[in-house]
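Section 5.1 Outputs to date
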Amino acid sequence: MRDLYFILEEFLKKISVDDAVRVFRELHNQENVSEFKLAEDLRLNINTIRNVLYSLHAHNLVYSVRKKDKEKGWYIYYWTFNMPYAKELLLKRKNERLKELRRCLTEEEDKSFFKCPDNHVRARLEEAMEHDFKCLDCGKLLLEEDKEKAVAEIKREISLIEQDVVEIENFKIDFIKEETKLKKPKKKAVKKKKPYKKEKKKLKKKVSQIKKSVKKDRIPNIKSEPSHSKGGILKKIKKKVKRLGF
């Protein structure tokens, strides 16, 4: 039985550019791999690596995170192969192919087909009769296909794909989490600056003076508006003192 990696590599050859399989083999059991490291390990130039990665990304088979290089000042992309989505995509494609093959199998078993000796055309019985069983391209006589051989070939492919589906469904993904991100450095906590001792003393003295004035029911130079009442002024001073941390 073919394993998932073999099935996936076969699939990548069909949908992606050259070197996609090599990049997959380098990425599949790692996460957040620098594109420059990939280029170095595979001995390919950076533009070739990026073309492969962009091709895979177009099918959502890889994803990346970006991090700024402190020394050089530019951004570097770190790539991870999206195995959960790859598994889902493979299952979808395999099941679509199974559905198509089962339809073809029913048609092959129920109908007769005629074929040109030089493989120019293939036609159903009704279509062959309309053209007197002659090939429209070369004029040669159409020959009836061996139904048993065609049916056996379709059944063989169906069996192979069914085995692939079982293998894909049973494959467990436990080494990479989707959308893994690079760990960001923790920010250092900024300590709040405490007020100077002289400022504290001045404010305490001011609060003490206002309290005495309130008790004696006299605050100099205070207007009669509600916002400048004795209680209001004292409240504002207390808030300021509390905000400064004592």
